[in-house]
Design goal:
With 238 residues, the protein is α/β, with parallel strands linked by helices. The protein is 36% helix and 16% strand. The strands form 2 sheets. Strands 2-1-3-4-7-8 form a 6-stranded parallel β-sheet, with helices on both faces. It is globular, with a radius of gyration of 16 Å. The N terminus is likely disordered.
């Protein structure tokens, strides 16, 4: 699904937003509205979360719809998606938000399996019928502790299961090796440990910006997320 602000864009960069696992594209609404008011064309990818290859292809289709060069933004699992889809020639920059940043031959599962010293493991339930879910009772505290409780309760109940083909899909190309990247590190994240985030960001040579936030940084800190995306876009537009 592609959402856009129509003919109001007056910027030379298009922003494409890619969500992560267990949620859908509606989580981008506040960021979408901020960037839209600033005059950006903003497109939003609705991932299937069934397989990595399918989500990469969905993202490439949205990139093709962009009117301008693209700043490609990925949250969580969406980081893996943009790492591969970002090799598209229209993409000029990558922005990772509390995200996985795989190397060629790695999967999100590989990265998530690496131990982080002293960090709690994400409260994932055992796979069932080819999909993974977060323990609903633990979802609010682990995923979005700094977001309104009524919303996090709904998110826990309405979460989108994450397909094993998406979790275990191996990356075949890494856009961050050839394009500038930014990383918003969520220091209070209990889904992807901050130490793991920093390690991936450093490996990718990303400019790191820390923010005190849960994993759901686009919901708890939409202004800071939008500010980083704007910085990335302005740096590419000049």
């Amino acid at each position: 699904m592609t959402l856009t602000v129509g003919d109001t864009s007056d910027k030379s960069i298009t922003v494409v937003l890619v969500h992560g696992a267990f949620v859908d594209a509606s989580g981008w609404r506040q960021v979408f509205e901020i960037l839209s008011r600033e005059g950006y064309e903003v497109l939003v990818v609705q991932n299937s979360a069934v397989s990595l290859s399918a989500d990469v292809e969905r993202t490439r289709q949205v990139i093709a719809d962009a009117s301008n060069p693209v700043v490609l933004v990925g949250h969580s699992y969406g980081g893996a998606v943009i790492t591969e889809a970002g090799t598209d020639e229209k993409v000029v920059c990558l922005v990772y938000l509390a995200a996985f940043v795989p190397e060629i031959g790695e999967s999100v599962f590989d990265l998530a399996s690496q131990a982080a010293h002293g960090a709690e493991k994400a409260p994932l339930l055992p796979p069932a019928n080819g999909f993974i879910r977060v323990d609903s009772a633990k979802f609010p505290a682990a995923f979005a502790a700094d977001v309104e409780p009524a919303l996090t309760h709904f998110m826990a109940v309405a979460q989108r299961p994450w397909g094993l083909e998406a979790v275990q899909g191996k990356i075949s190309a890494t856009a961050w090796k050839n394009k500038p990247s930014y990383y918003l590190l969520a220091t209070d994240d209990r889904m992807i440990p901050p130490e793991a985030q920093e390690k991936m960001a450093v490996r990718a040579g990303a400019k790191i910006v820390e923010v005190r936030s849960s994993h759901a940084v686009m919901l708890s800190q939409p202004e800071k997320v939008a500010a980083l995306i704007t910085t990335a876009a302005e740096n590419q537009a000049t």
